[in-house]
Amino acid sequence: MQVLYKSTRGKGETVTASMAILKGLSEDGGLFVPTEIPKLDVPAEKLAQMTYQETAYEVMSRFLTDFTEEELKNCIASAYDEKFDTSEIAPLHEANGAYYLELFHGATIAFKDMALSILPHLMTTAAKKNAVKNEIVILTATSGDTGKAALAGFADVPGTRIIVFYPKHGVSPIQEKQMVTQKGDNTYVVGITGNFDDAQTAVKKMFNDRELAAELDGAGFQFSSANSINIGRLVPQIVYYVYAYSRLVGQGKVKAGDKINVVVPTGNFGNILAAYYAKQMGLPINKLVCASNENKVLFDFFRTGTYDRKRDFILTTSPSMDILISSNLERLIYRLTGEDAQKCAELMQSLSEGGEYTITDEMKKGLADFYGNYCSEEETKETIHNVYKNSDYVIDPHTAVAAGVYKKYLKDTDDHTVTVIASTASPYKFTRSVMDAVADKEEDKDDFALADQLSAISGVKVPKAVEEIRTAPVLHDIVVDAPDMPDTVKKVLGIH
After folding, report:
1. Which of these, 184, 266, 276, 334, has the minimum number of CB atoms within 10 Å of its CB?
2. Which of 210, 253, 197 is nearest to 418 (CA)?
3. DSSP character at residue 27
4. Of these residues, 6, 112, 287, 296, which one is catalytic?
């Protein structure tokens, strides 16, 4: 069965998977969604015998139907190799009454590696398939993790360049150091004086700028995206939920067909949308628990049916979730409208022009799969402390937001279904926040000294990703205002 892709705001025209990956965003500003969600027709017992790579092929081949078996298997083999510090790629760790799905064993110690280590291979394969002659320029805004993972994925990949914009004062010191020390002749990192939403809005605007596209084309370039709006990011994320379920079956923790709950800390809604798609494929998921930090725009949406970004932007200890415009929610909204692209486009227009939209009662019924809640900064810190005290297991602030919300879910529902918590970053990425919570006191050491201290108490070796940047020189030091981003792109590409 061929799966094609259409825009959430379009007139129903379809493109192949490879074309959707190349474009990143549809010309009408919409996101690409599959014309139908394929069924996962492999028995759980059979999946339980498979490696991560084999599972990835089973899931991804159902969505990326214009890739040949050989092409897709090559992409998978190139992505999930010794870049990961565990052969399991995404191990499950039982702690504190739940199973933590560790998605941080890749090159940049955050879950974005799971998709961004394969996206460059999918993209360059897609370019060949579609006889693209232009150099592909990956344009990305990051709230901390996407940037480094995309840079690591695309560094020195022939036929590509990558430009990453990040909020200069909105990421952790280790996140920033990871980006500004990035090697690679085709990599560019630029700080902006605003917040993540400013960066993301400017990037989206550049994607929709026809004049800029024509100018780029004349110079032999075309834009594509490594943000989670790219379907080539979303499809690989579905894999790890299927893999987690198959491990639970393989370990006898659940019987094939038994339901599980999944808890996901999310800002941009991509990671939890992947779990929702896994459920649509037939994975036995009961509840999708959506965990927010103090920027609780998603929690308010689930509670009221109104999505309202008109609020103060709060900088928290879980910066990858400091987001007020959850781009991927549009894909869910599109499904809730009954795939009515015009209705979806109207809602998105009202968000960009008036800062909010409200869904109908009928659409709200479609949210029954989800439970939303949030954790305050204090609760996040407390959760890190308690999980360490009770289970001798150290988690990062994003994972702690999820664990804290799971505790609230249990209190609200008394639903003790076996639960998987997406653990989205290594505690080593946020050593200061983690050590403050675990040691119960402010530390005045630098982040690397804190990493050594964390290693001593957790018994987990300091990851290579942190060791490498300890003494690495800063290679990128440009900072611009958000309105100057298009000029910066032209300058980087040598177009004047």
Report:
1. 184
2. 253
3. T
4. 112
Crossing angle (nearest 10°) for helices 231-250 and 119-129: 130
Other C-beta atoms closer than 10 Å to the C-beta of 55 total 25
Torsion on CA atoms 34, 125, 65, 326, rounded to nearest 10: -20
Alpha carbon separation from 27 to 32, 123, 139, 228, 485 (Å, rounded): 10, 18, 16, 17, 20
Q: Which residues contact 14 (CB under 8 A, 6 or more apart)?
A: 4, 5, 6, 35
DSSP-derived pairing of the beta strands 160-167 and 187-192:
parallel
How far is it, in rounded angstroms, from Cα 365 to Cα 141?
33
Residue 416 buriedness (CB in 10 A; 0-12 / 13-18 / 19+): exposed
Task: Show the tokens assigned to 411.
Answer: 């209190």
Strand runs labelled E in 96-155: 98-102, 135-141
- Helix orientation angle between 231-250 and 52-63, rounded to the nearest 10 degrees: 130
Per the annotation, the verdict on 112 as an active-site residue is: yes
Predicted structure pTM score: 0.92
Q: Are 154 and 224 spatial neighbours (Cβ–Cβ below 8 Å)?
A: no
Whether 166 contacts 176, CB under 8 Å: yes
E strand residue ranges, 27-96: 32-34, 92-95
Tokens of 268: 């941009």
Mean pLDDT in order along the chain per 10 residues (496 residues): 95 95 91 96 97 98 98 97 95 97 95 95 94 93 86 92 94 90 96 92 91 95 88 97 98 97 95 97 98 97 96 92 92 96 96 96 95 98 97 97 98 98 95 90 81 91 92 95 96 91
Strands of the sheet with 92-95, listed across from one edge:
92-95, 98-102, 419-423, 260-265, 285-292, 370-374
Please give the C-alpha separations between residue 444 and each of 222, 337, 397, 457, 488, in angstroms, as whole numbers. 46, 51, 19, 17, 37
